[in-house]
Write a structure and sequence with these properties.
Layout: H1 6-16, H2 18-21, H3 25-31, E1 36-45, E2 51-62, E3 68-75, H4 80-96, E4 102-109, H5 117-131, E5 140-144, H6 150-164, H7 188-204, E6 212-216, H8 220-231, E7 236-242, E8 245-248, H9 255-265, E9 275-277, H10 279-283, E10 289-292, E11 311-313, H11 322-330, E12 335-336, H12 338-341, H13 344-357, H14 364-389, H15 393-412
Parallel strand pairs: 3-4, 3-5, 6-7, 6-10, 10-11, 11-12
Antiparallel strand pairs: 1-2, 2-4, 7-8, 8-9
Bound molecules: nicotinamide-adenine-dinucleotide.
Nicotinamide-adenine-dinucleotide is lined by residues 144-147, 189, 216-222, 241-243, 279, 293-295, 315-317, 342, 345.
Length: 415
C-alpha cells in the first residue's frame, strides 16, 4: 500500500459532485465522517501457546439507505483510514447500484500468510465475538474482502449463531453455497465488472474478441476476471500478477493452466512459457484493457503518465489515486470507477441476503441474469450523466450515489 490516503481521496470524489447537487457545507461535513466506528483489541491463542492481541476495526459509514454492508479485510498494512475510505466507497457503491443498504467495512491488522489455518479460524471467531453487538442481519452485514474467504465467512456465521443461540445465515454474506451462500457469489465481482467493460467497449470502440488485457491481482477478483475475460469474452489475457510479481505472454496466458499452477506453487511467478515482470511493469503495459484487481493506490502521480491502456476498469477499490485520476482524465483515458465496476460483489451479496431472509435458493442462471440487469442499468445511468454533464464517469457515479444518500437523509429528517 502506498503512502496515499484512501479516505482523503474518497472525500475529494465526494466534493467533486457537491456543486452539481447543491450540497450544503453542513451536509457535506456529515458525509465526510463515518457515523460509527468500533476499535477492538482481539486476543488470540497462537499455535505455540502464546497470546497475541490483534487490532481490529468495524466502520459503519452511513446507514441512511439501510443496514450497512461491507467486507472484512485481513491485511498486515491495514490502517483505520483505509477502512474508513473503503466504508465510504461501499456507501456510494450501494447507493449507485440502488441497493437498500448503507456502507461499512471491517479489518484486522494481521498477516494470514504467516498464520496457520487454526490461528486464522480462532482470529475470525474472536473478531466476531468482539464486534457481535455492532453487527447483525438488520444492522450491519459483513462479507469477504482481501485475504478473507468463504470458509472464514462460515466460521464467522457459526460464531455469531452460537452467540445469539440460533442459526443466523443473514449476518454475513459470501458464505459457502453449502451453508446459505448464493450461487454466483464467488465470481460476482469479476462477472459484474466484465458486464461494465462490455458496455464501455461498445461506447469506446474496443473490440473485445482478442482484446489484450492485463490484470493486477490473482485472488478472488483477479483470477475470476482473467477466467471470465478469456472464456466468456474471448479476450487475450497477456499479463497477471500477485503479491510476489507478475507474468507476461505476448500470445496470451492459459488461465486454467495458470490456476492449477498457482494452486500448486502459491504464486503465478515463473509460470512456464511466460516471462516474469514486476507489478509496476504490468501496469505500464501497452494493452487495450487494464484491470487493477489487488489493492488501492497502485496508480499514482508516480506512474500515471506511463499508463498506456486504452481503458482502465477498477475491479479493486481505490486503485487510482485522486491526483492520478485527474491526470489520466486530462489525457483522455477512460476509467470505469470502482463504485460502478466492482459492484457485482455487493449486488450478489444482497441477493444472498434476500435468499437467506426468504429461506430460498436461486440457481446460478437466475443470479447471473439479475446481476447483469443491475450492472447494465447502473452503467447506462452513469454513462448518460457523464455525457450530459461532460464530466468523468467517476464524478457522474458519485453524483448519482451521493444524490440518493442525501435524499434518504432528508426524508429521514436528519438534515
Ligand atoms: P484476494 O485476497 O482474494 O486477492 C488479492 C490479490 O491481490 C492476491 O492475488 C494478492 O496476491 C494480490 N496482491 C496483494 N498485494 C499485492 C501487491 N502489493 N501487488 C500486487 N498484487 C497484490 O482479494 P479480492 O477479494 O480479490 O480483492 C481484490 C480487490 O477487489 C480489493 O481491492 C477488494 O477490496 C476489491 N473487491 C473485492 C470484492 C470481493 O467480492 N471479494 C468486491 C469488490 C471489491
Amino acid at each position: 500500500m502506498s503512502e496515499q490516503n484512501l479516505f482523503e481521496d474518497v472525500k475529494k470524489h465526494l466534493c467533486s459532485c457537491s456543486a452539481d447537487l447543491q450540497v450544503t457545507p453542513n451536509l457535506e461535513a456529515i458525509m465526510k465522517m463515518p457515523m460509527r466506528e468500533l476499535h477492538v483489541s482481539i486476543p488470540v491463542r497462537m499455535d505455540d501457546g502464546s497470546i497475541r492481541a490483534f487490532a481490529g476495526f468495524r466502520v459503519q459509514y452511513n446507514d441512511a439507505l439501510g443496514p450497512t454492508k461491507g467486507g472484512i479485510r485481513f491485511h498486515p498494512d491495514e490502517t483505520i483510514d483505509t477502512i474508513r475510505g473503503l466504508a465510504a466507497i461501499m456507501t456510494w457503491k450501494c447507493a449507485l447500484h440502488n441497493l437498500p443498504l448503507g456502507g461499512a467495512k471491517g479489518g484486522v491488522i494481521c498477516n494470514p500468510k504467516k498464520m496457520s489455518r487454526g490461528e486464522i479460524e480462532r482470529l475470525a471467531r474472536a473478531y466476531i465475538q468482539a464486534v457481535c453487538h455492532f453487527i447483525g442481519p438488520d444492522r450491519d452485514i459483513p462479507a469477504p474482502d482481501v485475504y478473507t474467504d468463504a470458509s472464514m465467512m462460515a466460521w464467522m456465521m457459526d460464531e455469531y449463531s452460537k452467540i445469539v443461540q440460533k442459526t443466523t445465515f443473514g449476518v454475513i454474506t459470501g458464505k459457502p453455497v453449502s451453508l446459505g451462500g448464493s450461487e454466483g457469489r464467488e465470481d460476482a465481482t469479476a462477472r459484474g465488472g466484465w458486464f461494465i467493460i462490455r458496455e464501455a467497449a461498445k461506447d469506446t470502440g474496443i473490440f473485445l474478441e482478442g482484446a489484450r488485457v492485463a490484470i493486477q491481482g490473482f485472488g478472488n477478483v483477479g483470477a475470476n476476471a482473467a477466467l471470465i475475460g478469456q472464456e466468456l469474452f474471448s479476450c487475450t489475457v497477456v499479463a497477471v500478477s500477485d503479491s510476489r510479481g507478475g507474468i507476461y505472454s505476448r500470445i496470451g496466458l492459459d488461465i486454467r493452466a495458470l490456476l492449477a499452477y498457482k494452486e500448486k506453487t502459491g504464486s503465478v511467478t515463473d509460470f512456464p512459457g511466460a516471462e516474469n515482470i514486476t507489478n509496476d511493469e504490468l501496469l505500464e503495459l501497452e494493452v487495450d484493457i487494464l484491470i487493477p484487481a489487488a489493492l488501492e493506490n497502485v496508480i499514482t502521480l508516480d506512474n500515471a503518465s506511463r499508463i498506456k491502456a486504452r481503458l482502465i476498469a477498477e475491479f479493486a477499490n481505490g486503485p487510482v489515486s485522486s491526483d492520478a485520476d485527474a491526470l489520466l482524465h486530462s489525457r483522455g483515458m477512460p476509467i470505469l470507477p470502482d463504485i460502478l465496476c466492482n459492484g457485482g460483489g455487493v449486488i450478489v451479496s444482497y441477493f444472498e441476503m434476500v435468499q437467506n431472509f426468504n429461506l430460498d435458493h436461486w440457481d446460478a442462471e437466475e443470479v447471473n441474469q439479475r446481476l447483469e440487469k443491475k450492472m447494465v442499468v447502473a452503467y447506462k445511468a452513469v454513462h448518460d450523466l457523464s455525457f450530459k454533464n461532460n464530466v468523468p464517469m467517476r464524478q457522474a457515479g458519485y453524483t448519482i450515489a451521493v444524490g440518493r444518500v442525501v435524499k434518504a437523509m432528508k426524508s429521514r429528517g436528519w438534515v
